[in-house]
Amino acid sequence: MSVPVAYQGNTSAAVADWLNKGDNAWQLTASTLVGLMSVPGMVVLYGGVVKKKWAVNSAFMALYAFAAVWICWVVWAYNMSFGEELLPFWGKAGPALDQAFLVGRASLPATAHYRADGTLETAMVEPYFPMATVVYFQCVFAAITLILVAGSLLGRMSFLAWMLFVPLWLTFSYTVGAFSVWGGGFLFQWGVIDYCGGYVIHIPAGVAGFTAAYWVGPRTKKDRENFPPNNILFALTGAGLLWMGWAGFNGGGPYAANVDSSMAILNTNICTAASLIVWTCLDAVFFKKPSVVGAVQAVITGLVCITPGAGVVQGWAALVMGVLSGSIPWYTMMVLHKRSKLLQRVDDTLGVIHTHGVAGLLGGVLTGLFAEPNLCNLFLPVTNSRGAFYGGTGGAQLGKQIAGALFVIGWNVVVTSIICVVIRLVVPLRMPEEKLAIGDDAVHGEEAYALWGDGEHYDDTKHGAEHSAAVAPV
Predict the structure, then answer these.
(1) Is residue 336 part of a domain?
(2) CATH number for the domain including 391?
(3) Cα(295)–Cα(318) distance, rounded to whole angstroms?
(4) 0.70 cut: is pTM over it?
(5) Domains in the chain, number
(6) pLDDT per residue over 380-406, tens digit each?
(7) Can you tell me whether residue 9 is helix, strand or coil?
(8) Any transmembrane segments, and where (predicted)?
(9) Calpha distance 44→59 (Å, rounded)
(10) Each residue of 143-161: b (16+ CB within 10 Å) or e?
(11) Can you give the residue range of the structural domain that contains 332?
C-alpha cells in the first residue's frame, strides 16, 4: 500500500494531534475480536452443528460471505451505511478506498439533532481515530450479519444463489438498517436506541433468514427429521469464540476505551451467563436432559438480547434481560414453534428467527424499558434518553423502540423476498434433489471427515467388502 505524500519521510506525522492511541488500539482490537467471531467462530460453529454431509458446505457459506462483504463494503456499501444522505434511510454509494479519506479523522454521522425546545437529542459522533478504523469495525459487523442469515438456509440453498444473495442483501437491506439506525438516518435522528446491533444486525438476520428460508424451500424430508450435529465440541468452540468475541462486539460500541465500554462488556457477560443457566434449567425440568446444543442457543440469545442496550442499562437490568433471553426464546423455539403452522412450514435450519429475531426484538423492547438516563448520557447517539422504567419521557422511548423494530422487520420481509425472486429468475435457489441426497461430496467434491457415511456416494473400490479384504493385513 502506498504511503500518502504528506507522510513520506515523516513517520511522526502518522500520529496526528487528534489521534487517541488508546482508543484507536482498542477499536482495532475490538474489530478483530468481532472478525474472529465469524472466522473462525461461525465457520467452526456451522461446520460442527449441522449433519455430517453438510459440514463443508455450511462452513464454506460462512467463509464466502465474510470475503464477499469485505469487497462490497469498501467499494460501495460503507458509504451507503455511513456516508452522505441520499434518502432519510439510505446513504449515497461510493468507495471507501481513497487513501486521503481513510487517514482522516472519523466523523459520523454527519449531523447532530436537537429537539424543538433546543435540547440535544442525538449528537454527532467524533471518534479520536482514523476513518480507516471505523471502516474496519463496521465491516466485520456487516459480514457477521450475512453469516447469521446463512444459518436459516443451511442444507439446501444453491451455493451459486448464495453467492448472488450476499452482495444483493448487503446492498439493499443491511445498508438501509445501518444508515437508518447508526448512520444519521431517520431512526437515529428520532432517538431509537441500538447500542451495538439489535436492530441493525440481529432482527434483520432473523427476519431475513426466515423469509429467505420460505423462498428457498425446506431441506429434504430425511434431513428435517434427522439432523444431528456432527461435532458438538466444534459447536461449543464456535460458541465460545462468539461469547468472548462479543467483548469487541459490544465493547467497541462507544468508539472509545471508556466507562461505557467497560459497562457494556460486563453487562454482556452477566446477561449471557444468566441466559445459559435459565435455558439449561428449563431443558432439565421439561425434557429431563440438559442439552449442550440448547446451551449454545442460550449463549447466543443472551448475547443478542443485551446488545441493543449493553452500555445503557445497569447490571441488575442485564440480569433480568438474561433471565428473559433464556426463557422467552426457549419458549418460542421449543414450544411455540411446534404448535405454529407457519413456523413448521418454513424450514429455518438453525432457528435463527428465535435466536436472533426474537432475542433481538426482546432486547430492543427491554432497552426501551431499562435504558438508564445517566448511562444514556455517556453514549452520544442517545443523549438525554431514558427508559420507561425511569419515568418522564421513558414511555415515548419504549414506543420508539417498538416502531423502529417494526420498520426493520417490514423492510427485511419485503426486500429479502424481492431479492430471492430476482435471484430465482437467474439461477435456482435450491440445490437439485440429487445433490441434496448426497451433500458436500456432490456440491464441493470434498468431505469434512475421511470416513464413509450418510450422504456419500457408495464406492465399492473404497467401501466394499472386496476392497476391505484386499487391504486387510494377512
Answers:
(1) yes
(2) 1.10.3430.10
(3) 18
(4) yes
(5) 1
(6) 666 678 899 998 877 899 999 999 999
(7) coil
(8) 25-47, 59-78, 134-154, 161-187, 199-217, 229-249, 261-285, 292-310, 316-337, 349-371, 402-427
(9) 7
(10) bbbbbbbbbbbbbbbbeeb
(11) 24-220+227-443
